Amino acid sequence: MNTCTNCKHLVEEWNRICRQCGYHLVLEPEADVRARYLRGPSLGALLFTQVWSAGARLYVWFLISLVPGVGLVALFACLFWGRRWSWKSGGWQSWEAFTKRMRLLDLLGLCWVLILVGFYLFRRFA
Which run of H or of E encompasses 3? Predict the structure, then answer.
């Protein structure tokens, strides 16, 4: 017995319609969820490449990102393939630890950009 994600009613069979609310239920295998997450771009790698690559345990890409001119290559490589590389070679304890770190690194990248924009606006208009 599973529960409907919409109305929390007990449902006997998956990939069917909930008999109480009519919500269409689909069970997605864990492997598909992981594969989709790993194929997705990383916001943190785009916004703060050096910190993201170090936090994702991609130390070679961290060093590459420090080289002028080549750093752009590291930015785009980590943006599109960084999650896959980090999961494959990072030695993570669990999937949860990995996704928690990726969320933290994405948040740090966003905070970094907000700090830079705030500093720019402060210097521009003060």
Answer: strand 2-3
Query: Range of 81's domain?
Result: 40-125
d(CA 8, CA 70): 52
> How much is the pTM?
0.73
- Within this chain, do residues 24 and 86 fall inside the same structural domain, yes or no? no
Q: Are residues 88 and 57 located together in one domain of the fold?
A: yes
Q: Are residues 53 and 114 in the same domain?
A: yes
Token pair 């494959």 is found at 88
**Residues 77, 49: Cα–Cα separation, whole Å:** 10
CA atoms within 13 Å, Cβ hemisphere of 39? 6
CA distances to 42, 48, 103, 126 from 78, in Å: 7, 11, 15, 36
Nearest Cα to Cα of residue 48 among 117, 102, 120, 112: 112
pLDDT of 82-100, one tens digit each?
999 999 988 899 999 999 9
